[in-house]
Design goal:
- The protein is an alpha/beta fold.
- The protein folds into 2 domains: 3-182 and 361-374, Glycogen Phosphorylase B (Rossmann fold), CATH 3.40.50.2000; 188-357, Rossmann fold (3-Layer(aba) Sandwich), CATH 3.40.50.2000.
- Helix content is 49%, strand content 14%.
- It is built from 17 helices and 12 strands.
- It has helices at 16-28, 42-46, 48-64, 66-74, 76-103, 116-125, 158-166, 184-189, 194-200, 222-229, 246-258, 274-280, 290-298, 312-322, 332-342, 345-352, 363-374, and strands spanning 3-9, 34-41, 107-110, 131-134, 152-155, 175-177, 209-213, 237-241, 264-268, 283-286, 303-305, 327-328.
- The longest helix has 28 residues, at 76-103.
- The termini are close together.
Amino acid sequence: MAKRFLLVTEEWAGSGHRMAAEALQEVLLEKEGARSARVVGGLKTASPGLRVLSHFFYRSMLRYGQPVWQRIYEQEEMLGSALTKALGWWLSARLTNQLLLEEKPDVVIATHAYCLSALAEAKRRVPKPFQLVCVPTDFHINRFWIHPEIDAYMVAHEQIAQILIDRYGISPEKIHVYGIPVRPAFTTALHTDKAAWKKQLGLVPDQFTVLIGGGEGGYGGVGQVVRELMLEEQPLQIVVVTGKNASLYKRLENLLSTKSNGHRFLLKGFEPQMWQWIGAADAYITKPGGITCAESLALKTPLILFHPLPGQEKHNCSFLLKQQAAILAETPVEIKEIIRSWRQPEKRDAFAGNLDKLGRPDAVYQIAHTLLQLTD
């Protein structure tokens, strides 16, 4: 019998969680065993007011209080307990009444941890039982993702599986190491080489191409990086993606209209087809969001990390550096020096070889297959 899937995510804390849910939705809907696959915002459904408050607090912390946010994040045991108990209990009643009783899902998948404990509580309340699955979208896991009612953990790497077993006592049978799910278009994009992508996008096929991005919000010191690369003597082909940050787009537009210093610049706003630009790039300068890094690893595009946000991005950064799958630049000058080095194909290719170990472009298909099996 075909199954009903419900993907619960949050869009206010970065777009990666939503994109992971949508990637799984796309693949599940192609399968015969899926009757439906709906993506919903957890807080948007359960408490729109709390969603607005959480979004405001999150944005304010990132803008004005990043060290404070890092300290809050590191108190995961205390906060995890609070979410599991008081907040989880309160939200679970709302999710049950406003979503679960109507949807009657067979499998609920969480790609963000905020409502996970509430879903676990709701699992005990609803008359129709469901399987509860968590899909963390980072190369790290913490207390927020842990609950005895969770039936399966789909994680990015073997090290995360080991943390679940050693630190949290999760049964190995519940853990599946598949990678972070990226959109199916990234899997398809693997079959096109960089020169072909450049040609398709109207770029010069044999010119070293740098992609600069700051996620959907355009964070990560993008303007500083652009100004420094403009000082590079050897011409570069530079694609800048500002996301939904209209003020950053305008500032860069004004800067690039006055001078380019021999470089070819292409300025983009929100770009839904990032696989093309990541596929074309010889180097990708970005902050280490989990989905962004997984997308780059899937297409074997070398990563230069800059200005990681507190919390998960700091952990993603540490993980990728230990795996020698990215380079962290402390200053824009360092970025310029790394790119200068990577202009030598042998140095860039040697680094890119490390990406094969972590890139898992098929993760979304493996996760979807297991989700279908879970309900049998």
